[in-house]
Write a structure and sequence with these properties.
Layout: E1 7-9, E2 15-17, H1 18-22, E3 27-32, H2 41-52, E4 58-63, H3 75-86, H4 105-110, E5 129-132, E6 138-142, H5 151-161
Parallel strand pairs: 3-4
Antiparallel strand pairs: 1-2, 3-5, 5-6
Length: 162
């Protein structure tokens, strides 16, 4: 089963699948948080989304509160923060767990993917990024410190759109 078939809800609670959210197009999946030192990456994620959306690419934000409680808000609070503070237009899912026994099904597969240093396993922090192709194959994993505009990340995304 592809991760695109995994059931998940949109931030507003509407049941869906990752495939319906991405439209079967390449996507960057990012576990996001509103009260993290890396939260300003929302701006770069939105810029990347806006720049490449017309070519069939999307960013998907997956809020997570597992790292020092840095995403404590309700769905409504998360939506308001993202919209008002960073003008986020890319799709967001319900708040999920990315690690541990309650790890969401999507992250079971993502955690098995090695990062640029060849290391797989638990998500290390907020804003870890996973690039998936249109069929749901996991193409790349980028550490939280890799900015959305990093040339390596942009090149990996561009390669999926060629």
């Amino acid at each position: 089963m592809s991760i695109l078939d995994a059931p998940i809800a949109r931030l507003d609670g509407t049941p869906t699948t990752l495939g319906e959210i991405t439209g079967g197009k390449p996507a960057l999946l990012v576990n996001v948080a509103s009260k993290c030192g890396l939260t300003p990456q929302y701006a770069g994620l939105e810029e990347l989304h806006e720049k490449l959306a017309d070519r069939g690419f999307t960013v998907v934000g997956l809020p997570c509160n597992q790292f020092r409680g840095q995403e404590p808000g309700s769905a409504e609070e998360i939506a308001e923060f993202c919209s008002a503070t960073y003008g986020v237009t890319f799709p967001m899912t319900e708040k999920i767990d990315v690690n541990g026994e309650g790890r969401h099904e999507v992250y079971r597969a993502l955690a098995e993917t090695p990062n640029e240093n060849g290391e797989a396993g638990d998500v290390t922090w907020n804003f870890e990024k996973f690039l998936v192709d249109g069929s749901g194959a996991i193409v790349a994993r980028f550490s939280p410190g890799v900015e959305p505009g990093d040339p390596r990340l942009v090149a990996a995304v561009e390669a999926q759109l060629s």
